[in-house]
Amino acid sequence: LLAEKLEQQGYTVVSPGSGGEVKLNVELQKLTYEMGGSVLTEIKLVSTVGVTAVRGGATLTSRYETNHREEFATVPNEKKNSELINMVVSKTLDKILGDKELRDFMSK
Known about the structure:
Order of helices and strands: HEEEHH
Strand content: 35-45%
Structural class: alpha+beta
Radius of gyration: 17 Å
Largest sheet: 3 strands, antiparallel
Strand order of the largest sheet: 1-2-3
Oligomer: single chain
Helix content: 25-40%
């Protein structure tokens, strides 16, 4: 997903070790899912992704986080839980792609 979005922005994504100009390491550092509530079921999700970009001798390290809270009348089923998790991680990846500082660093 991230590689596809980078390519849509005009970057060429190559396999590790194949000599690209920028090395981009993306690491899911935290993914939490908490359920609570008394009358309604409250779901809280947090996704944190760390990114390290290396270009020549320069390194840029950034961290991106998305918090999401939603209430449900009943406990979400497995399909809905998967959708929630995918959504919160996707939002975090979108933050990476929207980071002007990172885009500028990779485009130098």
